[in-house]
Amino acid sequence: MAQPTDTMNATLATFRARRGLLALFVLTFLVCCVGAVLLPHDRYIRYQQFGGTAMLPLGWVYDRLHYDRTPIDIAIIGASRTEVGISAPQVQAILAAKLGRPVHVANLSLPQDGRNLHYEMTKELLATHPEVKLIIYSLIEHASRNGHPAFRDVADTGDVLRAPILINPKYFDNLAYQPYRQLSLFLQTQMPALFGVHRSFDPKLYAGAEHDATLSHWSVHGNWVDRDTIHTADELAKAAKGKVARRNPIFLPARLREYEYVVERHYTRATIALAHAHHVQTGFLYLPIYAHDQPIADLAFYRARGFILNAGVVAHDASNYSDYAHLNRNGSTKMSRWLAGWLAAREQRGQLHFLSNDRTP
């Protein structure tokens, strides 16, 4: 008959063996994760992961920055409001006419807001187009607390690791995604045809430097996006009121705002510091939703980092909007002319300096 001591020793040995196996499993899993993260890949493929999504224009952004030698004097980086609200071709044409010299403008804005993605795009822009002189970033009523959802897809893994940890709901989610992303990108790099991606620039797939999201077009989902539609004031006001009602309020007083917008502030500081280190001027542009021109959250924080343009003048004319938040062709034309006029006046007064040097594209 087994003695109690023998039974206890056997149980303890079994427990230790299982604990050892668990530790070995965890260690092996971590080593595999680290190994996956270190796998090399073609960065071009990193920007081809958005087919069938609203983030598809990221592919155009990469092509514009890396393969199109047309200079960029002014870049606009923001969310969908600036994407469809400012026509880069119109702005540069008006600036050239007013200033008598070519001024090259690129609108690199994408759907959804998040300064962490803007930081990654600024890195790409400055690395590929050192001639840029001014970057205008978008503002919305309340800054993002979570960052942009595409950040984990296009950010360098080191940037994901160095993101703020405290009060960052997406930190561990973004971090846990990296081994899978790196392994997937590695396999796609080795077998691009199998995954429907390409490692070489194809001019036939490139929309060109004159790409303009303010124009009507077919969406990635096969829907016709009509930028010329004009809705009634009642239609727009109802949608805008509902959006305002659902908007997350500011929870903390100004002295604690650092903790509420920790992700946004961290990457805003990093983005502006990076731009200024390259002697690039910075500013911010706010395009309001229809009939609800609201105070910009954290306004003093942004004012310390660049000029602020508030286009609230468009907010009370329904003929400017294609929906409650986005300008139609009529509104984007007004805003493009307004922005170009403001920029030209500041350049002529010596308050801004973005005139292009004599370069050929």
Shape: globular
CATH class of the domain at 53-148 and 206-349: Alpha Beta
- Overall pLDDT level: 87
Question: Which bin fits the share of residues in helices?
Answer: 40-55%
Q: What is the strand tally?
A: 7
Alpha-carbon distance between the termini?
91 Å
Describe the protein.
By secondary structure, the chain is α/β, with parallel strands linked by helices. It has a domain at 53-148 and 206-349: 3-Layer(aba) Sandwich (Rossmann fold), CATH 3.40.50. It is built from 15 helices and seven strands. The chain has helices at residues 4-37, 43-46, 57-66, 80-85, 88-99, 115-128, 151-154, 157-161, 171-190, 192-195, 233-246, 257-260, 262-277, 299-303, 329-349; strands spanning 74-77, 105-107, 134-139, 217-218, 224-225, 281-286, 307-310. A five-stranded parallel beta sheet has the order 2-1-3-6-7. A two-stranded antiparallel ribbon has the order 4-5. Helix 14 links the parallel strand 6 and strand 7 (307-310). The relative contact order is 0.16.
Notable traits:
361 residues, Rossmann fold, five-stranded parallel beta sheet, 15 helices, 48% helix, globular
How is this fold's topology laid out?
Elements: H1 4-37, H2 43-46, H3 57-66, E1 74-77, H4 80-85, H5 88-99, E2 105-107, H6 115-128, E3 134-139, H7 151-154, H8 157-161, H9 171-190, H10 192-195, E4 217-218, E5 224-225, H11 233-246, H12 257-260, H13 262-277, E6 281-286, H14 299-303, E7 307-310, H15 329-349
